[in-house]
Specification:
This protein is of the alpha+beta class. The chain folds into three domains: 47 residues, 2-Layer Sandwich (Alpha-Beta Plaits); 201 residues, Aspartate Aminotransferase, domain 2 (3-Layer(aba) Sandwich), CATH 3.40.640; 122 residues, no CATH class. It is built from 15 helices and 13 strands. The strands form three sheets. An eight-stranded mixed beta sheet has the order 5-4-6-7-11-12-3-13, with helices on both faces. A three-stranded antiparallel beta sheet has the order 8-9-10. Strands 1-2 form a two-stranded antiparallel sheet. β4 and β5 form a beta hairpin. It is globular and about 65 Å long. The mean pLDDT is 95. Bound molecules: flavin-adenine dinucleotide. The site of flavin-adenine dinucleotide has 33 residues, from α4, β4, β6 and β11.
Length: 398
């Protein structure tokens, strides 16, 4: 029987495979004080059949040093899709293709309260909700069960999720389905839903209004200088970057991700998914003839024939360049194989959060923003409008 306690939380990625597979239905996913869900077993109902351990992707994960078969750098030819996607809008094209084949897509969305969870879509017009990375662990709910139901009818299913979620799904299914297509991403880690909730509460109070729209990667000042933006019902807007935003800074300073992310069992270049997507920050390094227009490209690792067929089917929707797997992995995809550092103040961060200290005070005390960053952030809009931001970035690169 799976037994996750305070001492072995890093052994659970929260994928829900165990809860979904339990024949006695005696496992529920329960939030801990950091806001992450873990399996809780009702020992009165459990018959110790061991299914939960058989389907756990962490227990059964296999390390491999293999490389993906092929790599490409792509951009969607629809500029609106690129604008609203985190990098080059590759995932939207895969979703559209599955819908075209009368399939169903499962991906991460914001619900009406801006919690992040997995939902499905069956028409092209619904696909907008999936666009863009949400830097929070997505709540899978009954997604695995719903996917199995669809697969068993023979319908084509596309699942997009974190590497642990994709591997958890395949592990839960326990057999391969020709009608299942999975896309995962190179994943830095998944931040706490509790931190995201506290952040929203803080910003709602600060701006005196409900949130009407949010985007973790708004390309306000271009792809390379994106912001976490919040648009409020009263017309006000907040847009801050990785150095100045309380949520993004917590994420990238390694202080609020799930414990399993710092020693992730799924950090490998060759995945069980058909495709892996990630940010291509350095397009000119791989394709020197291209001028970087700062709109974003998606890097794609192809893991098998089915992944290659998908790219062939959607190639008319892309500007597409073949790339060297090793070069991409070294420069842009290194988080596929490298764990992030755990911030030594992580425990203190969550203790303060749980004792009611507002998130901005916690960040200011434990991971303060450098004054130079604050000043730069203030003038970024002017620098962008006058073209100086582009010049500064060019100088930095050289
Ligand atoms: C938590 C997280 C961490 C990431 N870390 C890295 C990294 O370290 N390095 C890197 O190069 N790229 C990382 N990425 C991937 C990157 O941000 C882009 O998603 C990727 O480049 C694809 O962009 P796109 O424009 O093609 O698709 P997009 O339109 O951006 O679509 C992304 C898809 O991801 C799904 N998704 C969004 N948020 C979540 C979530 N919280 N959980 C599960 N699925 C989600 C959505 O369903 C959507 O369809 C991360 C993404 C997430 C969500």
């Amino acid at each position: 029987m799976i037994n996750i306690t305070e001492n072995n939380k890093k052994d659970c990625c929260g994928c829900t495979a165990c809860a979904s597979a339990c024949p006695k239905n005696c496992i529920s996913m329960v939030c801990d004080s950091e806001g992450f869900k873990y399996p809780k077993i009702d020992s009165k109902l459990c018959v110790d059949c061991g299914v939960c351990e058989k389907v756990c992707p962490v227990i059964n994960s296999e390390n491999n040093a293999e490389l993906p078969e092929k790599a490409y750098i792509v951009r969607n030819t629809n500029p609106d899709i690129v604008k609203n996607s985190s990098s080059g809008g590759a995932v939207s094209a895969f979703c559209e293709e599955i819908i075209r084949q009368n399939g169903i897509v499962f991906g991460a969305v914001f619900d009406k309260d801006f919690n992040v969870k997995h939902e499905s879509a069956e028409t092209s017009s619904e696909l907008e909700k999936f666009r863009g990375s949400k830097y929070v662990q997505s709540d899978l709910g009954n997604t695995y069960l719903n996917i199995k139901k669809q697969l068993d009818t023979g319908r084509k299913v596309l699942f997009i999720g974190a590497p642990c979620q994709a591997e958890g799904l395949k592990s839960y299914l326990r057999k391969s389905y020709d009608n299942l297509f999975t896309v995962d991403f190179v994943c830095h880690g998944v931040p706490s839903p509790l931190v995201w909730k506290k952040y929203r509460e803080l910003m709602t109070t600060k701006y005196g209004s409900d949130i009407a729209y949010t985007n973790f990667r708004e390309k306000t000042y271009g792809y390379h200088s994106s912001n976490l933006s919040l648009h409020f019902a009263n017309g006000k807007k907040s847009a801050e970057n990785t150095n100045t935003d309380y949520m993004l800074k917590s994420f990238f300073d390694g202080i609020c991700s799930r414990p399993s992310c710092y020693d992730c069992a799924f950090r490998k270049a060759k995945r069980v998914s058909e495709l892996t997507v990630f940010d291509c920050w350095n397009i000119t390094r791989y394709v020197p003839s291209v001028e970087d227009d700062d709109k974003g490209y998606t890097a794609v690792f192809v893991h098998n024939d089915s992944g290659a067929e998908m790219l062939e089917s959607v190639k008319d929707k892309f500007v597409m360049y073949p790339a060297d797997v090793g070069a991409l992995l070294d420069a842009d995809g290194h988080m596929a194989v490298k764990n992030p550092d755990v911030n030594p103040k992580r425990r203190q961060y969550f203790e303060m959060l749980n004792s009611g200290v507002p998130l901005d005070c916690i960040v200011k005390e434990l991971i303060p923003v450098k004054t130079s960053r604050k000043i730069f952030g203030k003038f970024k809009g002017v620098l962008y409008k006058t073209g100086m931001l582009k010049q500064i970035k060019k100088l930095k690169k050289n």
